[in-house]
Design brief:
With 753 residues, the protein is α+β, with helices and mostly antiparallel strands. The protein is 25% helix and 29% strand. The chain is built from 18 helices and 36 strands. α3 packs across α13, α9 packs antiparallel against α11 and α17 packs antiparallel against α18. The longest helix is centred in the last third of the chain and has 23 residues.
Amino acid sequence: MLIKTLKRFVSSILIIAVVIPCLAGCLQKKSDGDLPRYVDKNTPWYKCEKKVFTDSKAGNMENSFPVFADSSCKVFYKYIGGTSEEPSNQLIYINDQDIVTNIDISASFKDNEIFNLKTCFRKDNDLFAVINVRKKNVNYNQVYRINLAESCLEYINGFNQAIETEYYVDKVICKANTYFVHFDYLDGINYKDAFCTFDMNFNLLNVLKTDDRVITWSVNNDSKIIAVEQDKTNIADTTVYSAVLDFDKGSAIKTNVEPEKYDEIGIGYITDDGYCYRINKELTLTKLNLETGEEKLVMDFNYSSVNMFDLQCSWLLYSDDKTCVLRKNTVYPSESFNWCINTLKKESANPNSGKQILYVAPYFKIGSMAASAIKQMNESSKDTFIYVTMDYSSLTFTDYETSDNSTISQYNKNTALVNKLKEDIRNGNGPDIVLDFARFSGLNDDAYLKDLLGTINDKSKFNREEYFDNVFDAYVKDDKLYQLPVSACIGGLYAYDTAVPDSTLGFTYSEYSDYVKAQCDGIDPFEHDYGRDDCFSILIKSSYDELYDEKQHINLNNDVFRNICNYVRDMNETPHDEASKVPLQFVEFHRVHFDLSTMLIEKDKRVYGMPSLDGSNGPLVFAYESIGVCSNTRSFDEAFGFIECLLSYDAQIQNVVYNPVNKAAFSEYANAALKYSNSQIKEMYRIADYNDPSIIDEYISYISSANTCYMSDDYSLLIMNEEIQAYFNHQKEIDKVIPIIENRVNNMAEEQK
């Protein structure tokens, strides 16, 4: 299936703003002009121990997930639906010595009952499981002690005395000789929330129902339930409050709290004494008092040996003030399924004290390659320490706030973010390195970024032969390279090669028009799949070299811009509802595992460049992953050392999203990809095996023929889209529109300097 990349890419990024302080250095909030430059000897350090659970004593971990962890054990539950060779319905208990105990849950139930594990909890040295049992079309919850010595469950009691209808137990906390329990129960056709207390023999003490939605809950030091709730009778009301529940009075004392702190995505490990440990987008672990809303920093993950990519793909299973346990499952489908458990424990001293800090600023999250390079650099360098600052991440940047999520608001937010980055660099307080800012061409200036071309062309400093170096060259403009692509993402027109001359890299506009008429029955795939405005944006971004000068000023008084406008002018404004079956389409090849499947299904096609005046534009390079060195860096050599680390085989082989630009890493991926793609096609399309490795050579030819960068400044593109409508609607001539666009864009560019 062909990939409609641009449309998906534009709509896929959800920007979430949070109001949590950004932390760095000695774990104090940074102020402008106060970036710590060396690791302080008193900065805490957390050592990470990583364990991977796969086909082990516990059996294949697929279709299972961890449901409980503390400082001494982890419990995995295998879903219903196993095979006769590998029984389902298992509890898999793994203690901190990796001793595995398998318990078949089904042995405790009759054959005609449906059952499922809901939660686990601990009391002293005993571990309990709450299992949901469906009997006579009603759900009940029963408590079992996990008997590890006998590898079985021991029935204790049930919770069915609490509510006489269908219900589910969410969580159990044992405190002060009382079991505190949260239920979801069925009230007519709606599920509602209730809290109950039981004595040590599981006899019911109290029941308190609530009409509000319970986000999370715990028990405070006075043994009263704290429930963080939201009024669900008013969908528009986003007020969140902390409610201390009084069972005797059947009421709650409510206090408004900040909704951002209780974002369900960020809620982490809830303690038994009224606190929540949560991982924040700023790569910190904080401890939140559910009753008061007070929050304090526990850990800055930069000062630990955890892989940052693992961290951002993890869930917090357990935490205290000195230890946290994270779980992460397999990220990429072609990898063997596994569970990874990272346990971080506080060390007595920081092994990096005295190292000079280099700050790396990502536009979004830290990718797998960058995280691997950071870990390698921090473990191997004697003098340099890499710190990730999220101050300029679209996840956390909050300087520009709006009341809606419109396109104009997002463009404005990005502009404000990049302007803040520019201002900090000019003032000498910016980061040393930026990641994945390639789509912001306004940064491509000596005032903001270092020119890397001379360094990568110096054979004594860098060996270009190890890489698909034409990918680098695609982003060279006026003999300068400010942002270096570090992954090989290739896009273009996917067309039958029998209808295109062998020497062709791309099409002229007239050749493309002839191809559409002859091969596509006159149906233009661009118009059909994208519509006029998206086609316009794609072609503008594909013509960056011709439309922007060396100072990032826009120049539209040329044939390139006129041809683009004429070509899209009379297109349908929006895409057609149904996909057309035509032998040409826009694609992006960014991951060889999936792309080979496309190539194996759509045989005799090839990737060509976008239409241009002379047809010399080859396939596009999408620099979704890039790196640049900021002009304010105090350590260019060390910053370039990080670039080399990021481009090394060891880092590039960790890429789980895009193709490595390192040839050796790509070769290893490609060999595995042929088998993977083959198996996928056989399963989905019942196509016979295709084992000809020459298809890899064809794929490499697409990468090697790419010579055109895909870049634009988002705000200038917004201005173009606004002003060009008058021409599209036949209200103004193109020569009347061009100076208006140029004046607006160039004035904005000057204001940002």
